[in-house]
Amino acid sequence: MLDINDNIVLKTKKFKNNPLLKRKQFLLSIDRKKKFNISKEWLRIELSKYYRIKDPSLIFIFGLKNNFGGFKCSAFVYIYYNLEAARVNEPKHRLIKNNLMKLELQSSKQRKEKKNKMKKYFGNKNKSF
Amino acid sequence: MVETSREKVRNKAANQNTPSSTPKAKGAVNSAQKKKSAKKIVDHDKEHVKETDQAVDAFADVSQQLREEVLTAEAPDLIAMLRDFKSQIAEVRTQLSADTERVKEGALPTSNGVSYLELKLQLLLSYCTNLSFYLFLKLNGMSIMNHPVIKKLIELRIFMEKMRPMDTKLKYQMDKLLKINTNTESSTAEQENALRFKPNPEALLAPGETAGAREEGDEEDGEEGDRDAADKQGVYRPPKISAMHFEDKEEAKKRRAHERKAKKAAKSEIVMALREQFDDAPVEMESIGASSQYKDEELAHRTKFEEDNFLRLQVSKKERHRLKQMKRKGASIDGFEEYDNLTFDNVANHQDLSEQESKILKKRSFEDVGRLPGNKKSKKRGAR
């Protein structure tokens, strides 16, 4: 379990407001001073406290990467204004990780059949399969 | 037939010989006179036969050498043709006729071979007849231009050439059958006959090899034979002089692992420090900042791109390996890793450790010092 006493330093860099996509985006650099990795859940909660966001599931963290040499890592963060904006603008796999969307998979055979059927047609209009 | 042709040859020689062209030989004067008379005879066809007999008697003295010289001068093809003719006839007489007689009697149990034999016989016979006719034409001085005989001869020759590979294929069978036939009187039991068809392993050997060549290299002759056969095929086989130790898969693995560890230990910092101390060779210093400028630039460029576009770029295998190695170098400054390496080689005998144990020892490195019991990450999401 991590405490504030562990002296993990979070820095936000290259902060940018993106009203077109209805989000705020910035780079998060973490200095953890010990050789273990930090979870995204914990980061989301901390950021929601700092930025005073009611729904922490609107914060999307991705691209966590350890710097060369260890003890430091960097991540990309998007904070959306509302749920609709998030649903429209975010890729599905990230929505699923934030529990905003459920992945419903048919059986693999059915999926493959559908894929093969869709090969014959061009465009979105044949979504009825 | 042959005799008559010989007579004709002599006749021809007699006719074409002029007193001026006769070479010096025994009884040359006599022969010259006789040839003169012979020449006159040719013009008169009715007396042809009588005079030929006379000529034959006259030319009994004529030397062989003379005859040959004359023949080669006038008709060089003739001698070759005659030889061919002789051989063909001999074949017909001796081999085929006997076989066909036997087949007619029903002694030889060949079902597919009979047609082949008959065909061959017929071909040879027709070839001989055509040849003889051709010779007859030539000797009588008749023109052979565009005569169908030549065409026929060529045809038959082609057929015979095509038959030849079949002949070699059937040779073994035919020899066996003939053998049986010759020995039917001596052996009566069927079992004995069956044994004649036993397989012959010596037939499998290459033409240069002997039966003893395939054994383990005891004899020099065997090796040489084997080598010769191999050289003929173009493959190099080293000579088996002394016994070599056979290395098992596991043995080879262990040997290779040991070599790898020895290499690693040789490169370790401690060993290098010792070498520096005791060896007289000059010390190699890393040129700081010489080659790393490019790499730093590249790294900076990559990070800038990533931050601007909010995406992570793939690191190639080579890069990853390089980074790993650099990390290792950095860690070894403290010297922790080197002790790990040394345990493999000197302190503990690596052969005593099982695979699992050695794996565990390898994994434990300086990084794991940080993994304390309280700080263990839980795998569930949202556990904090």
TrEMBL record, chain A:
Q: For the region Disordered, what residue ranges are annotated?
A: 107-129
Family matches, as Pfam families: Ribosomal_S24e (PF01282)
Q: What is the lineage of its organism?
A: Eukaryota, Cryptophyceae, Pyrenomonadales, Geminigeraceae, Guillardia
What protein name applies here?
Answer: 40S ribosomal protein S24
**Biased composition annotated in UniProt, kind: Basic residues:** 109-129
* InterPro entries hit by this protein: eRP_eS24_sf, Ribosomal_eS24, Ribosomal_uL23/eL15/eS24_sf
Database matches in PANTHER family:
40S RIBOSOMAL PROTEIN S24 (PTHR10496)
What organism is recorded for this protein? Guillardia theta (Cryptophyte)
One GO biological process term is: translation
Coiled coil where? none
For this record, an example GO cellular component is:
DNA-directed RNA polymerase complex
Q: What keywords is this UniProt entry annotated with?
A: Ribonucleoprotein, Ribosomal protein
The answer to whether the entry has keyword Ribosomal protein is yes
Q: Which GO terms describe its molecular function?
A: structural constituent of ribosome
Instruction: Give the domain of life.
Output: Eukaryota
Automatic annotation (TrEMBL), chain B:
Please give the InterPro entries that the UniProt record associates with this protein.
Sas10/Utp3/C1D
Q: Where is the composition biased (Basic and acidic residues)?
A: 1-10, 352-370
Q: What domain of life does the UniProt record list for this protein's source? A: Eukaryota
Q: Where is the composition biased (Acidic residues)?
A: 216-226
Q: In what ranges is there compositional bias, type Basic residues? A: 254-265, 374-384
Q: Where is the composition biased (Polar residues)?
A: 13-23
Disordered as annotated region, ranges: 1-46, 185-268, 349-384
What processes does the entry annotate via GO biological process terms? Answer: maturation of SSU-rRNA from tricistronic rRNA transcript (SSU-rRNA, 5.8S rRNA, LSU-rRNA)
GO CC term, one of those recorded: small-subunit processome
Matching PANTHER family: NEUROGUIDIN (PTHR13237:SF9), SOMETHING ABOUT SILENCING PROTEIN 10-RELATED (PTHR13237)
Protein name, entry field: Neuroguidin
Q: Which organism is it from?
A: Guillardia theta
Organism phylogeny: Eukaryota, Cryptophyceae, Pyrenomonadales, Geminigeraceae, Guillardia
